[in-house]
Each structure stands twice: as structure tokens, then as C-alpha cells.
Amino acid sequence: MGAVLSLDTLLAQRRLWRGQPRGQAQATREPTGHAALDAALPAGGWPEAALTELLLPADGVGELSLLLPTLARLSRAGRDIAWVDPPYRPYAPALARAGIDLARLHIVDTGGRQSAWALEQCLRSQACGAVLGWPQRADDKTLRRLQVAAEAGQAMGFLFRPLSAARNPSPAALRLQFESGGLRVLKCRGSHPPALPVPWAPALRH
Question: What keywords tag this UniProt record (predicted)?
Fold first, then answer.
């Protein structure tokens, strides 16, 4: 019979993992800028150094306005932001009005042929505070590589994907599904998703 070791010994030797009680997640430094969404997320905002998936029924449902407060804050703090293969040309005047420093915004156009590779490089570079991507194809292996790259580069990755992707599992730390009048949290690392959608409406255009 093997020797009996104490819990303290196992922990000291890193042979036992110590879990954290639910509800004690550290406060994030990256609030979303939307109070109702922050209240619904376990860390009080976007998961840091991780992927977030935004699942859309169609383009143009206000998905970019959800990120504008975060992008503005990051750019004002001197952090670069990369957009990889956006489906439409970004409208610079609107981004500037939202408070984004355009000098910190970088558009990467691969023609859709190397989106996953470009996303991984941007996330891993340690040069970007946030990386936005519109990958045409993203299987489980690709998503795992992107999640690891976000952790290595300490960057927030935001992937815009079709609603049909919700049927497949994902290693992303957070998955948000856009619905009429709200956001449904499908997955959030550190807690169970709330039962009801989070009230949210995109900012009105002027």
C-alpha cells in the first residue's frame, strides 16, 4: 500500500489542483461598457486573454456598437486594435465619434484566404489589446489555436460568427447570441449562463 500524503503536501508538490469557489472570480479590468451585460458576466466584463464569440442572425444587428466602448478605452490607453478581414469597409468618422483613436486601428485584409492564420498571429503578438475577426471557417481545432494564442498574447479576441455556429461546441470563454431586444449568454467561463437574455439595444445612429 502506498504512503499516505497530506493535502498540504500534495498542493505544495503541485500534484493536486485547488478549485476556486463559484462566485469569487476576480474583477475584470475590461468592463463591456454596458451595465446589464457586466452584471450578467461572472468577472463583471469581457474575459481577459480569451476568445469571445458573437453569434449573429445577420450582419448589421448592432454587433460593432456592443464593442465600441471597449475599443475606445483600449485605443485611448495606447493599445492597438486589429480587424482581420472585416466584411465591410470600416467607417472611420463613426469610429472616431465613438472615441476610437484611429491611429491605433489596423485593418488586415487577407481576402479571406488566411483569416485564421492572421488572427492567430495578431492575438499572439502581444501588440494588440483586442483582435476582431470574421472567419469564414472556424472548426474546433482552429478555435482552440486562437484561444491559446489569445492567452499567450494577453489579448481579447472577438469572433463574429453566424448563428448556426451555436450548434457546435467551442473553447471560447464567452459566447453571446444576438436576439431581438437582447443578448443570450450561451457560455461564460466561471459560472452558469443566466437563464434569461440580457436586455440590450444597439446605440442609435445619428
Answer: DNA damage
